[in-house]
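Re: your question about 890_t:CDS:1

S., sorry for the slow reply, the queue was backed up all week. Below is exactly what I fed in.
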Amino acid sequence: TANPRLKMNANEMHKELLKRVTDNEISKDDMLKVFTITN
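Result:
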């Protein structure tokens, strides 16, 4: 379950996704754009 105390804004989420792409945990094609995250 998600912890409501650890909420991320769109930019924080985007940075975390970029980190995971860099670490090869996810594909760049699977990464959401900031615009998509904010909607």
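The chain has one domain: 8-38. The chain has a mean pLDDT of 77.

Happy to talk it through on Thursday.
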